[in-house]
Amino acid sequence: MKNSIEKAKRISVEDCCVYYSIETTFVHQLDEHGLIELSRSGKKTYINYEQLPDLERYMRLHYDLEINMAGIETIRHLLNRMQELQQKLKNLQS
């Protein structure tokens, strides 16, 4: 049962790339750089649906703004740091 639920929460990288009209190499590069996490089952590679908003964000940065992987990593780090600082500020204000 759990295995079928897990399968329902993911899409193959190939199907995802067809849907978004992007190259599979881009998605695999995101995985190699630790920006998303892909899972493998046999010969197929999958991305969880919960990671699709991140994938869309990275697509906009890369394709629309022409930012490379190092730049995307830096932006992600800075956004995460800003979020941490905002949470600390909220905690201090409480």
Model description:
The protein has 94 residues and is α+β, with helices and mostly antiparallel strands. Helices cover 66% and strands 13% of the residues. It has 5 helices and 3 strands. It has helices at 2-8, 13-20, 24-32, 52-64, 69-93; strands spanning 10-12, 38-41, 44-48. The chain has a 3-stranded antiparallel sheet. The longest helix has 25 residues, at 69-93.
Give the mean pLDDT.
Answer: 93
> Proportion of β residues?
5-15%
End-to-end separation in angstroms reads 43 Å
- The assigned structural class equals alpha+beta
Order of helices and strands: HEHHEEHH
Topology (elements, then pairings):
Layout: H1 2-8, E1 10-12, H2 13-20, H3 24-32, E2 38-41, E3 44-48, H4 52-64, H5 69-93
Antiparallel strand pairs: 1-3, 2-3
Brief characterization of the structure:
The protein has 94 residues and is α+β, with helices and mostly antiparallel strands. The protein is 66% helix and 13% strand.
Provide tags for this entry.
94 residues; alpha+beta; three-stranded antiparallel sheet; 5 helices; 3 strands; globular
